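User: hey, got a sec? need Probable transcriptional regulatory protein Deipr_0143 folded
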Amino acid sequence: MAGHNKWSQIKRKKGANDKKRSAIISKHLRAITAAVRSGGSDDPSGNLALKNAIAAAKSDTVPVDNINNAIKRAAGGADSGQDFKEVTYEGYGPGGTAIFIEALTDNVNRTVADVRAVFNKRGGSLGNSGSVAWQFEKKGVILLPDASEAAQEAAIEYGAEDLQVSEDGLEITTDPTELYAVQDGLASAGFTTENASLSRIPSNTVAVSSEDAGKLLRIVDALEELDDVQNVFTNAEWPDDLDLG
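Assistant: Yep! Here you go:
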């Protein structure tokens, strides 16, 4: 988990400096739309994908009105020309790192071409289906600003699988189906979570040099800038001196 913990810190620092708010909001609203349509319900209590999408949007401070409007439009059949499909891509980055990409698209040919172009331009390579997926496991991840012993005990009591303490607080790993049960349990115990979302955690990490880490970060940034890409995961063991500028 140490590598993932470091990446979580990097993501938060990048997010704090990210000025492309409209792009971030658009990605979340796309995920919400897809969740309503694929789940056949606009009620998050009976649609886990929608619940996940709403939670992720709120974690990135997407306005509640935007979230509610997206749910209403999707449930009402608005924008019916956009039927988003969930697709994943796998590839390799500098230093032998693995990259796993989650996307939502209404045009698979366009998306794969865009993803391949990023890899080709930035020094990576797009792999075949299954080439790196086996290295990542889907988990729930909760970020808690409070890393006290009481918070750790509560997390374990409510079903956490793993805990990591960092300068930013406590990172809690759960079974993906238990994410919200653990979060709700922590809330009932008086602990407020900063973020709760589904993630892909690498089973093993690969240490990369500062030079390769910089190249990999540029690949990740370019992939995340694509409209269709929702999430990018890597198994890199990021160096402490990584420049996020």
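Quick note: The first helix runs from residue 2 to 17. Let me know if you need anything else on Probable transcriptional regulatory protein Deipr_0143.
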